[in-house]
Amino acid sequence: MASITPTDSKTNTMKAWLYSSAGQGLEKSIKLSSDAPQPPLLGKDDILVKVHAMSPNPADYKFPELGLLARVMISVPASPGMDYAGTVVKTGSAVDTFKIGEEVFGRVEPNRFGTLGEYIVAKYSGCVSRPQGLGLEEACCVGTTGLTAYQSIAPHVTVGNGDKVFINGGSGGTGTFGVQIAKALGCHVTTSCSGKNVELCKSLGADEVIDYTKENVSAVLAAKGLVFKLVVDNFIQVGASVSLAQLKSTVSTMLLPSFLGGGKSSISFIMTKNSHDDLVELRKLITEGRVKSVVDEVFEYEDAPKAYEKLKTGRARGNLVVKGPKHLHGQSPTRDILQHQRREFCIRFPTPELVLAYQSRNPETRIFHDGDRRDAWLPTPPGLSNLRSSSLGMVMLFKTPEAATAWRKRAILAEDVISGSPEAGSTSSGIGCPKNSTFS
């Protein structure tokens, strides 16, 4: 039996967008809950991740909208979402690749605890560390669309051989990754898109772009006499209703004519699968500057339904992003920490540089690696009662004047007393954070 570890939450609840059925469309069915159940247990190979950003995909809504079949496979209420970027909170006993506090990104398989929840349980196969220079909002886009593009192209071309690849639909989430990946592998890339996205596809490296709103794609390709090593059709999406007649039409149009290669052709449907090795390769291409996430729009967590509304229009250029929830359990995280842990408290600084400056004077400060690295965790001083903001910085309220005096002496040595700190004998003391710092 696999060893299991609790999530160490006092409440075992979290914020999450939940659906019980999606008959009217997922965007109309998901409801925001502040007390949704957290993933209850960690297996020895599991990674508990706090989600800072997620990227919606068509499969997120197509699967729940299957109705009874979906409910048989995933118990409800459930959270949608597969793609994520966040911070490792806890690991199973057999996990030695990732450390607590490390920022990661990737993809989870469809399950009850999707990435529109505050916490998810990731697997090694669908998780890699986030490199410097790749923001969390960009990183969360890589999982499904990046893996789909990579797995539909990389195994079928010869690197550096100049293979001709046609990507039908180059401006969506998968298409934008596909164009870049194919170019990075040394392919000659032709793609199709609407007129407004032609320049986008060219900027991503496409050698030839066909505006399907003005020209017949098949006729244009036939006239050019191009022979393609690979055809990738991004208009057939996971979960779409595709009849045999439609498949036959797609095959005859895209693969059989001589201008697409003729002869022995085959059609394969790519079912994206988690692969740590593939994610590592994608990360390498990204860090080398050869591939990037194209983000169309970023939505606040409370606006997640709007993200799915836009996704369903099919008009997104690249990927959409939904930020993670700002607060834990509907409260300030500082209040949660003081109430439940009492060992650390968190302060959000105006800039990352101020966090580093503060840490240089206070080695015990632990930087919390959120999206913009402005959060710092500090050990809670003995006798601390509460915290509050002031126009000058942060004020710490102690239970006794003696406790406040002890903190002031330490703060003076670290040059962290703010001007206007209370007089000796008071039960409050300045913490010395810059103006406009806030509890986070």
From TrEMBL:
Name listed for the protein in its UniProt record: Chaperonin 10-like protein
Alphabetical list of SUPFAM superfamilies matching this protein: GroES-like, NAD(P)-binding Rossmann-fold domains
Domain Enoyl reductase (ER): 25-322
CDD domains assigned: MDR1
InterPro entries: ADH-like_N (IPR013154), Chloroplast_QOR (IPR052733), ER (IPR020843), GroES-like_sf (IPR011032), NAD(P)-bd_dom_sf (IPR036291)
GO MF annotation terms: oxidoreductase activity
Compositionally biased residues, Polar residues: 424-440
Cited Gene3D superfamilies: Medium-chain alcohol dehydrogenases, catalytic domain (3.90.180.10), NAD(P)-binding Rossmann-like Domain (3.40.50.720)
Ranges where the record places region Disordered: 420-440
Pfam families in the record: ADH_N, ADH_zinc_N_2
